[in-house]
């Protein structure tokens, strides 16, 4: 299966073992080819720029353009597959488990 990898970037602010605060520029790879997966945690996505689509295991696909909110709670099971359609900027907020 040919899976196109896309990158996500963010800045991490953290404290080291001595209590010193530091910035870290982080870049991770995201599978953009539609590999089904559950959400790693409960979270809310707010689309700030661009558009993406999500296909759930029952076969339904929805698009999430700028201004959309998505609450991800499929932390087990067959999961979902995502596909980025445009230059994307998402605000992701992690939620506590219920």
Brief overview:
The protein has 98 residues and is mainly beta. Helices cover 0% and strands 56% of the residues. It has one domain (5-94): Sandwich (Jelly Rolls), CATH 2.60.120.
Strand and helix layout:
Blueprint (H helix, E strand, L loop, with lengths): L4 E11 L5 E11 L11 E7 L1 E6 L4 E5 L3 E4 L7 E5 L4 E6 L4
Antiparallel strand pairs: 1-2, 3-6, 3-8, 4-5, 4-7
The strand order across the widest sheet is 6-3-8
Order of helices and strands: EEEEEEEE
Radius of gyration: 15 Å
CATH T-level fold name: Jelly Rolls
Oligomer: single chain
Task: Explain what this protein looks like in three dimensions.
With 98 residues, the protein is mainly beta. It has no helices and 8 strands. The chain has a single domain, classed as Sandwich (Jelly Rolls), CATH 2.60.120. It has strands at 5-15, 21-31, 43-49, 51-56, 61-65, 69-72, 80-84, 89-94. A 3-stranded antiparallel beta sheet has the order 6-3-8, with no helix packed on it. A 3-stranded antiparallel beta sheet has the order 5-4-7, with no helix packed on it. The chain has a two-stranded antiparallel ribbon with strand order 1-2. It is globular, with a radius of gyration of 15 Å. It starts with a strand and ends with a strand.
Comma- or semicolon-separated keywords:
98 residues, mainly beta, Jelly Rolls, three-stranded antiparallel β-sheet
